[in-house]
Amino acid sequence: xxxxxxxxxxxxxxxxxxxxxxxxxxxxxxxxxxxxxxxxxxxxxxxxxxxxxxxxxxxxxxxxxxxxxxxxxxxxxxxxxxxxxxxxxxxxxxxxxxxxxxxxxxxxxxxxxxxxxxxxxxxxxxxxxxxxxxxxxxxxxxxxxxxxxxxxxxxxxxxxxxxxxxxxxxxxxxxxxxxxxxxxxxxxxxxxxxxxxxxxxxxxxxxxxxxxxxxxxxxxxxxxxxxxxxxxxxxxxxxxxxxxxxxxxxxxxxxxxxxxxxxxxxxxxxxxxxxxxxxxxxxxxxxxxxxxxxxxxxxxxxxxxxxxxxxxxxxxxxxxxxxxxxxxxxxxxxxxxxxxxxxxxxxxxxxxxxxxxxxxxxxxxxxxxxxxxxxxxxxxxxxxxxxxxxxxxxxxxxxxxxxxxxxxxxxxxxxxxxxxxxxxxxxxxxxxxxxxxxxxxxxxxxxxxxxxxxxxxxxxxxxxxxxxxxxxxxxxxxxxxxxxxxxxxxxxxxxxxxxxxxxxxxxxxxxxxxxxxxxxxxxxxxxxxxxxxxxxxxxxxxxxxxxxxxxxxxxxxxxxxxxxxxxxxxxxxxxxxxxxxxxxxxxxxxxxxxxxxxxxxxxxxxxxxxxxxxxxxxxxxxxxxxxxxxxxxxxxxxxxxxxxxxxxxxxxxxxxxxxxxxxxxxxxxxxxxxxxxxxxxxxxxxxxxxxxxxxxxxxxxxxxxxxxxxxxxxxxxxxxxxxxxxxxxxxxxxxxxxxxxxxxxxxxxxxxxxxxxxxxxxxxxxxxxxxxxxxxxxxxxxxxxxxxxxxxxxxxxxx
Length: 799
Hints:
Elements: E1 7-9, H1 21-32, E2 36-42, E3 47-48, E4 52-61, E5 64-65, E6 71-77, E7 83-90, E8 95-101, E9 109-116, E10 129-136, E11 142-146, E12 152-158, E13 169-177, E14 185-191, E15 200-203, E16 209-214, E17 222-228, E18 233-237, E19 245-252, E20 256-264, E21 274-279, E22 282-288, E23 295-301, E24 310-317, E25 323-331, E26 343-347, E27 355-360, E28 368-375, H2 387-394, H3 414-422, H4 431-436, E29 450-458, E30 461-462, E31 467-474, E32 480-485, E33 492-497, E34 503-508, E35 521-527, E36 543-547, H5 556-586, H6 589-598, E37 608-612, H7 626-631, E38 638-642, E39 648-652, E40 655-656, E41 658-661, E42 664-666, H8 668-672, E43 679-685, E44 694-699, E45 718-721, E46 750-758, E47 766-770, E48 778-785, E49 791-798
Parallel strand pairs: 1-22, 3-10, 41-44
Antiparallel strand pairs: 2-4, 4-5, 4-8, 6-7, 6-9, 9-10, 11-36, 12-13, 13-16, 14-15, 14-17, 17-18, 19-20, 20-23, 21-22, 21-24, 24-25, 26-27, 27-47, 28-46, 28-48, 29-30, 29-33, 29-35, 31-32, 31-34, 34-45, 37-43, 38-39, 39-40, 41-42, 43-44, 48-49
């Protein structure tokens, strides 16, 4: 919905010549209240400790993919708000992807994924997405269970916010809870003076809402009595009946949104009233009533949104520009503008470990797809949230909505969605603030990619207005020489970097003699695009933790996930053995002698990889420490996660590795503080020997000297820019026929994950995957956007 079509009603409305306070407020909203929202798709809804979470992020500006931001922070927290891991994601056309590797010893509990762009931090933190991720661990002393008993509360909301004597008024009843809502509930409306005779009754549409209609009388007090399926009941008061005001009735159809206004006991009737329709922060509809009348009605055509779906905020202002009524309504609720994937061919088999493929049309307007294929077990469990509910509902409302995806499903109840919107308010901006002319404070601008401030120092003195030289090397590419001039504060700025490989930065003063005086040089690099601490509270969930006994039960899905982890380890172990055979053949005697000299028998194992810093040039230039250096080595089964201090903590096959310094147990902080020039040898020990999965670091002894130092620049005049986190590559095939240990049972749930499937030169985009041992049918999810940001959303079961 890139261009909103504006409608100005002029039948009994006259154009306004001078800009009024309201028009200034609308201009203020359009110019200063542009905001973003995020939807995060994960490959599964629940995980086992040791799993990898694959995720795809979509950033929207209103109902279009956002052009504002190119950087997204995605953070993983535990229930105590401790940061477990975080990723810096590159956004291209509002889309970006990544993954989190969960540790095997992660306690069983609910974890939370927070996602936000730097620009979003200018606005209310409540609009940042926080996604609930339950993680199970059979070894934990506590178990996650869904709370059975729910303490809920109810509220009644009159349509438009007004309840006037003699005016038929539609109400929405909304339930809320910190855990689970009752499956179904019902209620009745009574006059408090005659409680035995119900005025009307109602039944819930779903767990969230119900609606009813009532015509109130002046002086009466009305109450709603709500009872759930377990027998719990609650009595709430309806608003006090007013003797004057504005009544509004709204209905949404395929043709548009019809509204009817009725004034009751107003001095000037509806003369001077204004009707404003906003889509996000943009004006879509405007009408002024300039005649003496108590009634006004009209049809707002769907062309106000170019036929696209979305929420229209309808607001009525009196002659003094005061808000007198508000109503949210969904545009074309029964006619969602959603494209489906055009599948031109498929070859699906139910044979265990068979190759399968699905071909999409190369002639489609959609060129880039997000695809997820999972085993479907036939339970037909409805998804709780999807990109449609994130785009049109939960991305803009902070109140908890149970199962929001239901409102955009094939059999969605449009009455339920309408009742839900009656119970909601648009909180991305406040009309009173906009009318007063106040604007949000934009402290963090939307910058392109990542930027850094470089501080070069010579002899402990900052270099002000001085020409200096930086040698930049991206990954293994050829270094480039660059000349800069520091500003009046002594800084250099590197702006708009979008690297996903380490960028080595070396600082020199004289380009003609790069070796001159480098020992007195020092350089630090400060990122200017940084994460923001989370200040709020995590949303309540339907889960609770209970103590468990020794015979802890594990769900079939989690058992299968744990078995899949074992299979991955078997495959990695086979790859390690093949690498080690090749490595042993290449080892030189000096390295063997160094190993014998430094390590004891306890740290000896056939399943070991050795990095020799004494006899071999390990090219450590630009690495902050040996852990950063190891992260760039292609060692099977070795992964890293940054802790809250920004230090890379190693894991071997999903389990945090033990760390030893000169064969004394230590931690990552101690290892990270050792200069690489002082390190003689690093041993990676995998799953064998007396110490298990471990990394042993040995320091220089006697007259040892690092060979790397002969050619590498010292650390003090060099630094490294990490850049964006590069997504891992999803393994398409689990089975390796050449593996020494065969996989007995392939239990993968996620069979295919591709956040960036695209076609080129009219070659059909092909989804290709291998079956596991049990799948008889497949759940296929495909998401895409065309150049006009029309959405393709297709989820189907294929056999």
